[in-house]
Write a structure and sequence with these properties.
single chain; 2 domains; alpha+beta; 26% strand; globular; six-stranded mixed sheet; Aminopeptidase; 10 helices; seven-stranded mixed sheet
C-alpha cells in the first residue's frame, strides 16, 4: 500500500513549497537546505529503504540530518525487522514523529450502509440530525459547499483563520492553493459548512493517493470547526461527505491521518482521537521516526 508521501502529487506539492525532491525508483527523497548547517533529508513511508541511495544523496546535498519514517510495506519485513534495520545503520528512534505514528482506516469497499452501521451511535445520530430528514432545529439552515478556485480557497482560509484560536497554525492561502494545484480535480476536496447566514463554521480538506499499488487511499488531511460548528455537529457531516466522496471516486481505503499513540504521547490529540474513533475502522500502527545526525559530506 503506497503512502501519499510517495506519490507524484505529494512530490509536486513539496517542490512548490521549496523542497528539492529526488524521485529514484518510485521512491521520493525530500531535501531541504538549511542556513549554515547543511540540508535535511526526509524519507517518509517508502516502499523500500535503500541505504546506498540515502548515503549518495547525503553526500550530494551535504546532509547533516537524515529522517526516516518506515512504512508497513511487505518489502521491508515485520515491524521489529524495520526497527532493527534502522538501528543497525546508526539511526535512533526519536521521541516524537513528523508523521502520525498511529491511525485509523476504513474499508471503503463495503456498502454505504455497512460503513454507516459500523459507526458508533453518537456519530450515526449526528449524521441523521445534519444530513437526513430527521434534522433537528439546531441542524436546519446548515449547508456545505466545495471550494476549488484560488479565490474560493482564499475565502476558505479566511473562514479557517476566524474559526480557531490565534495561536493555532493555519496554512497560508498560497500554501493551500499549491496543495490544490498539486492534487487537482478528484485528487483533493475542500469542503466548508456554513450557518444560515452563510458564515463558515467548519471545514475539511481530503487528499488522495492514487497509484497502481496504493489501493486508492483518501486521507482526512486537515480540518477545523468553531464553537458553532461543534455545537451543530457539522464536523460529522463534513467527514461523512468526505467518506461518501471517496467511495464514489472508487477509492478503497479512508485514512484518518493520525490518532493518539501512547508510544509518542501528545495529550492534545486525545480529543480528536475520540471524534475519529466514533467512525469505527481499524487501527494501523507505524514503527515511528528514526533520525541520524551526521557532519556534512561525512562518508
Amino acid at each position: 500500500m503506497v503512502d501519499i508521501r510517495q506519490s507524484v502529487h505529494f512530490a509536486n506539492y513539496l517542490k512548490r513549497l521549496g523542497w528539492t525532491v529526488e524521485r529514484i525508483g518510485e521512491i521520493n527523497y525530500f531535501i531541504k537546505k538549511m542556513p549554515i548547517v547543511g540540508s535535511i533529508l526526509k524519507l517518509q513511508r517508502p516502499e523500500e529503504i535503500r541505504m546506498d541511495t540515502i548515503q549518495k544523496l547525503s553526500q550530494k546535498y551535504g546532509v547533516f540530518q537524515i529522517v526516516v519514517e518506515p512504512s508497513l510495506s511487505s518489502y521491508i519485513g515485520p515491524l521489529e525487522d524495520r526497527r532493527n534495520l534502522m538501528l543497525a545503520h546508526g539511526f535512533k528512534l526519536s521521541k516524537s514523529t513528523y508523521l502520525p505514528s498511529k491511525t485509523l482506516q476504513i474499508d471503503l469497499t463495503r456498502s454505504k450502509e455497512d460503513i454507516l452501521q459500523n459507526f458508533k451511535k453518537d456519530a450515526r445520530q449526528a449524521i441523521r440530525k445534519t444530513e437526513g430528514p430527521e434534522r433537528s432545529r439546531m441542524g436546519k439552515g446548515l449547508f456545505i459547499k466545495e471550494y476549488s478556485t484560488p479565490d474560493e480557497i482564499k475565502i476558505f482560509r479566511e473562514g479557517w483563520k476566524k474559526s480557531v484560536k490565534f495561536d493555532r497554525y493555519v496554512p497560508s492561502t498560497e500554501q493551500l492553493i499549491k496543495l490544490k494545484r498539486s492534487f487537482p480535480y478528484s485528487k483533493s476536496l475542500f469542503l466548508a459548512s456554513h450557518n444560515i447566514s452563510g458564515r463558515i463554521i467548519g471545514g475539511v480538506i481530503f487528499t488522495t493517493s492514487s497509484h497502481e499499488r496504493s489501493n486508492y487511499i483518501t486521507y482526512y488531511w486537515q480540518a477545523f470547526t468553531n464553537p458553532e460548528g461543534r455545537s451543530t455537529l457539522s464536523q460529522y457531516s463534513l467527514l461523512w461527505r468526505g467518506i461518501l466522496w471517496a467511495k464514489k471516486q472508487g477509492y478503497k481505503i479512508f485514512d484518518f491521518e493520525g490518532i493518539f499513540d501512547p508510544r509518542f504521547p501528545n495529550k492534545s490529540w486525545l480529543g480528536f482521537t475520540h471524534f475519529k474513533g466514533s467512525f469505527g475502522g481499524y487501527e494501523v500502527e507505524y514503527p515511528g521516526c528514526f533520525i541520524k545526525n551526521r557532519l556534512p559530506f561525512k562518508s
